[in-house]
């Protein structure tokens, strides 16, 4: 959650998310029109782009060099792409292709998957646990879990009664969240075992289309957004943890009575009693639009980011202790001309940015490559540290430096 990539009718744009007050455009490309998929490998210069002009072709670029690494064509339209440091996954309606990201070779083709018209799939960003999740059935909410490292099926999870609408791994690949097309219940499962850990009720009055599920980097919170005006944030905590014995009170006694009663109630009823309401919420001033959410730490504080399909980024403060209604602190337009002089004066970022995206966004303050020995085109070498670059033409894509392509947990 350190950068934002958007596809537009004229190409695509990449933004750094290192500041609340300022939205820095890292890169803009107008070479390919009508981009509907743009995926960036963490904070690196590797981006994967798919255009409506050639919806069956995936183009992999090093955007800083303006170089195309490779392109692949498939038998039908590409619906989604997911990538981590080990794997690049291409999802079509009835098949999934798994590439080795170090040389882009095709490792595995999963054929005859259940019809997946939205290209729903999730890949763990932790390359040590490269688990892939996708719908195992078009009729019900079964999740197929696949190990992208060993290239073997891990398990099948009966997650919901109705078809799946959203899937998301946490940062370590140890948990998987899911929602069905009804959108009323969100469940969290352990990975790779598939045991149900949490169940959250988003609402009972109306069905919604959940468009975004995302964990915070520390896996303490889970955010769900839909086509309604409300965004829900749930807290992942066990209510039956090992706490010191509470003094006997009437409310405590009744609580234990209710807890005991659930053992004798039908499963549906007892499950309802164990479900948690949202810990925090956001009320957007729009509804009916598709949006994507992220839980991030910006300038050392927890934030909720909501990007809407009309081209705006909303940044909210999140109170990790008390929750409640999140407060909107900034709204950015993603379709403007980019950074202004006024924005430069209001730059609130630390003087020595640690991330690649932050460094590139400040490149005007860095000497050019020719005058600064040891400065890598690819990022944060403010003090002469050399960060290995991608290799092109002469060899495979080089992603051997552990620090260049994090996920970094703050």
TrEMBL record:
Protein name: WIPI1 protein
Family as reported in the entry's similarity comment: Belongs to the WD repeat PROPPIN family.
Gene name of the record: Wipi1
Membrane topology: Peripheral membrane protein
GO cellular component: phagophore assembly site membrane
Pfam families: PROPPIN (PF21032)
Regions crossing the membrane: none
Example of a GO biological process term: protein localization to phagophore assembly site
Region (Disordered): 363-383
Organism of origin: Rostratula benghalensis (greater painted-snipe)
Keyword line: Autophagy, Lipid-binding, Membrane, Repeat, WD repeat
């Amino acid at each position: 959650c350190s950068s934002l990539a958007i596809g537009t009718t004229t190409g695509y744009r990449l933004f750094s998310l290192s500041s609340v007050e300022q939205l820095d455009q890292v890169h803009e490309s107008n070479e390919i029109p009508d981009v509907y998929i743009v995926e960036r490998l963490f904070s690196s210069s590797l981006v994967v782009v798919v255009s409506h002009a050639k919806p069956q072709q995936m183009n992999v670029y090093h955007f800083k060099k303006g170089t195309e690494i490779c392109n692949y064509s498939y038998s039908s339209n590409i619906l989604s792409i997911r990538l981590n440091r080990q794997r690049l996954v291409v999802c079509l309606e009835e098949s999934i292709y798994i590439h080795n990201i170090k040389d882009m070779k095709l490792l595995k083709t999963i054929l005859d998957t259940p019809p997946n018209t939205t290209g729903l799939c999730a890949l763990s960003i932790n390359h040590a646990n490269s688990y892939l999740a996708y719908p195992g059935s078009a009729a019900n909410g079964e999740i197929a879990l696949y190990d992208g490292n060993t290239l073997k099926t891990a398990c099948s999870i009966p997650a919901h009664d109705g078809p799946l609408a959203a899937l998301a791994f946490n940062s370590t690949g140890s948990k998987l969240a899911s929602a069905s097309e009804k959108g009323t219940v969100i469940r969290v499962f352990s990975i790779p075992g598939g045991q149900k850990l949490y169940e959250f009720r988003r609402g009972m009055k109306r069905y919604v289309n959940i468009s975004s599920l995302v964990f915070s980097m520390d896996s303490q919170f889970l955010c769900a957004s839909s086509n309604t005006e409300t965004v829900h944030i749930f807290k992942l905590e066990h209510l039956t943890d090992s706490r010191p014995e509470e003094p006997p009170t009437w409310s405590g006694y009744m609580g234990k009575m209710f807890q005991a009663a659930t053992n004798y109630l039908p499963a549906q009823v007892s499950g309802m009693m164990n479900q948690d309401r949202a810990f925090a919420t956001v009320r957007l001033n729009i509804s009916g639009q598709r949006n994507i959410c992220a839980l991030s730490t910006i300038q050392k504080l927890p934030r909720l980011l909501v990007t809407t399909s009309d081209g705006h980024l909303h940044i909210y403060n999140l109170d990790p202790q008390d929750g409640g209604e999140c407060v909107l602190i900034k709204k950015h337009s993603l379709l403007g001309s980019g950074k202004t002089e006024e924005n430069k004066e209001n730059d609130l970022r630390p003087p020595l940015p640690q991330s690649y995206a932050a460094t590139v966004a400040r490149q005007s303050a860095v000497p050019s490559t020719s005058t600064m020995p040891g400065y890598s085109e690819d990022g944060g070498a403010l003090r002469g540290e050399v960060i290995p670059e991608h290799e092109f033409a002469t060899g495979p894509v080089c992603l051997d430096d552990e620090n260049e392509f994090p996920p970094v947990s703050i």
